[in-house]
């Protein structure tokens, strides 16, 4: 069956969401009241702040900091459903939701720039590469958007994966079909279940799905190059680093895949075992690729230290990070941030030598599980902005120095 491509994209600019009036010192445990943050202004309003006025100094916070609550800079609202994923795109931060909508926020003033989205399923993942945005959906499809300021639709839908061309080339050959479940077959270029995660690196798009497969696509023409039966259960997370792609799964494993041989096909390079019968929900990798961290459904964060040959990987940390499942993680410099179903964010400081983790700060404020995290370097004053998306439908912003 061929799928049609609809190039029409809704492009609606909404009013600026209300923000917290001003940040407060980190030893304050008060949050923005519901009366200030739960309603949007009927008119577009302006908001300005000076980063020099933010008087945070995390070096003064003791390591034993469970009694502290870090103050949020802003609450960004406007999503139809719970916030499912985040991504950076130049001067923008993109947030997507279970309601199929994607909101584009400007940095650093946090204004809502535009809103777009299309598809037959909620947005599960999004990544950016150059002037393109790739979104993965519950309907097992990947949509490609082009960022252009020269057209009325700044984020314009240009294709859907698998492409129509890929279908036409393969659908007549019975050898291109694979068994997905009893009496059901699909082309090997199709995911048979929800796509849960995406990664982009070196001109390739990687997609992981609840159907247990990892697929590789070429950015230049969107052709599907490979399909790998990667895990024994749903794939929950992907990250690509230095020519290696890492996949985390509900089967309790993190696997590393790299291109080998004359045909440059992806082969299994190594396996990192988590706790028995515990899903690994997220994975992050250090810039040099020597450290891999996985977040589990038992609330633990585990770390492995190794080399590019994957012949000497060893566990270097195993910490009880949260009371409930770790759903997401992100790295920014020496810090690792973990978000949990217990509605909290934990900020960890990484050991420069062996990759061990030390609890640095506990952040609370969301009213629902933390589904996604994204860190963005500050352009003024150094440090970074931590963005957190939650099932409470809000995107919250935390300044970090």
Fold topology:
Blueprint: H1 34-37, E1 74-76, E2 83-89, E3 92-97, E4 102-106, E5 112-116, E6 123-129, E7 132-137, E8 142-147, E9 155-161, H2 164-170, E10 177-181, E11 184-187, E12 195-201, E13 204-209, E14 213-218, E15 224-229, E16 235-241, E17 244-249, E18 253-260, E19 265-273, E20 280-285, E21 291-296, E22 300-305, E23 314-320, E24 326-332, E25 335-340, E26 344-350, E27 357-364, E28 370-377, E29 384-390, E30 395-400
Antiparallel strand pairs: 1-30, 2-3, 3-4, 4-5, 6-7, 7-8, 8-9, 10-11, 12-13, 13-14, 14-15, 16-17, 17-18, 18-19, 20-21, 21-22, 22-23, 24-25, 25-26, 26-27, 28-29, 29-30
Keywords: WD repeat
WD repeats: 188-227, 363-401
Protein name: Myosin heavy chain kinase B
């Amino acid at each position: 069956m061929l799928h049609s491509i609809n190039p029409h994209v809704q492009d609606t600019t909404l009013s600026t969401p209300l923000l917290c009036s001003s940040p407060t010192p980190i030893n304050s445990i008060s949050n923005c009241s519901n009366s200030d943050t739960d309603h949007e202004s009927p008119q577009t309003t302006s908001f300005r702040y000076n980063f020099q006025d933010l008087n945070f100094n995390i070096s003064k916070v003791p390591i034993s900091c469970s009694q502290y609550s870090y103050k949020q800079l802003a609450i960004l609202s406007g999503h139809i459903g719970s916030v499912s994923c985040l991504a950076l795109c130049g001067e923008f931060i993109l947030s997507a939701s279970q309601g199929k909508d994607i909101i584009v926020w400007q940095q650093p003033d946090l204004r809502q720039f535009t809103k777009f989205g299309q598809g037959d399923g909620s947005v599960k993942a999004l990544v950016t590469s150059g002037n393109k945005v790739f979104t993965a959906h519950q309907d097992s499809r990947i949509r490609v958007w082009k960022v252009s300021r020269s057209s009325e639709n700044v984020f314009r839908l240009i294709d859907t994966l698998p492409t129509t061309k890929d279908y036409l080339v393969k659908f007549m050959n019975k050898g291109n079909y694979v068994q997905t479940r009893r009496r059901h077959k699909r082309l090997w270029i199709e995911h048979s279940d929800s796509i849960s995660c995406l990664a982009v690196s070196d001109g390739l798009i990687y997609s992981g799905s609840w159907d247990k497969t990892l697929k590789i696509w070429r950015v230049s023409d969107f052709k599907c190059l490979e399909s790998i039966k990667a895990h024994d259960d749903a794939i929950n997370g992907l990250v690509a680093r230095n020519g290696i792609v890492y996949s985390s799964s509900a089967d309790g494993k993190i696997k590393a895949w790299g291109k080998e041989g004359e045909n440059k096909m992806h082969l299994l390079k190594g396996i990192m075992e988590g706790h028995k019968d515990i899903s690994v929900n997220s994975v992050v990798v250090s810039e040099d690729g020597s450290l891999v961290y996985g977040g589990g459904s038992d609330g633990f964060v585990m770390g492995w230290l190794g080399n590019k040959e994957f012949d000497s990987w060893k566990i270097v940390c195993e910490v009880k990070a949260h009371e409930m499942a770790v759903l997401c993680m992100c790295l920014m410099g020496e810090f690792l941030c973990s978000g949990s179903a217990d509605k909290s964010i934990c900020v960890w400081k990484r050991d420069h030598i062996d990759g061990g983790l030390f609890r640095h700060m506990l952040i609370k404020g969301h009213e629902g599980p933390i589904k996604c995290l994204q860190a963005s370097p500050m352009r003024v004053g150094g440090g970074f902005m931590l963005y957190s998306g939650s099932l409470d439908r809000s995107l919250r912003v935390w300044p970090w120095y």
